[in-house]
Write the structure tokens for this entry.
Amino acid sequence: LEQGDVRMCLRVEHAAGESRFVQDFIVYRDLPRVDVDVTVDFHEVEKTIRLAFPANAGPEARWVSSIPCGAIEREPDGREYPMQNWTALCDDTSGIAVLNNGRYGVSAQDGVLRMTVIRNATYPDVRSDHGRHSFRYAVVPVRAETLASAATEAAALNRPLQGHYLHDAPVAAEGVLLGLRTSDNVELSAAKVSEDGGALVVR
């Protein structure tokens, strides 16, 4: 679909049952992750659609998923659990993290991560969730030492940098609103001025 100096995009289309899937794989020159835009025209009954990601990690791999303001390690036992923005299966030398912007059911077993993306329940409507679905996920390589990068890339996927033109604002060559000088395992999720106006409150 696209091949330029900044990124390239490859489209893959396929059908399964009565449903059709379109995935646009986006590879960036300067980013470590692969973004995937997915469109599904879903028409299945009593079916669940999961995406599977072989992690290329050994039997001692750790399975870690994001939760609000943190992360949790679980046994990769095949049961589905909730996640927030990312999940990773990795050992000391290799592995992957799967990032998402709206699909929260994941499982891991035998070195494979699985993310549930669509599910049809027949009650009260046999056609529940039928129709068009669009979402984005991303895959990034990680290992135990670089696991914190999954949270950083998930934040970038879910809250991409946006530029705004402020025509009446004074022009400054450079500036920092708020900076963090710490390791990669700290994330700033909110900031506000205190009620008395004398301090900055961060979370």
The mean pLDDT is 88. The radius of gyration is 20 Å. The longest strand covers residues 131-141. DSSP finds one helix and 15 strands in the chain.
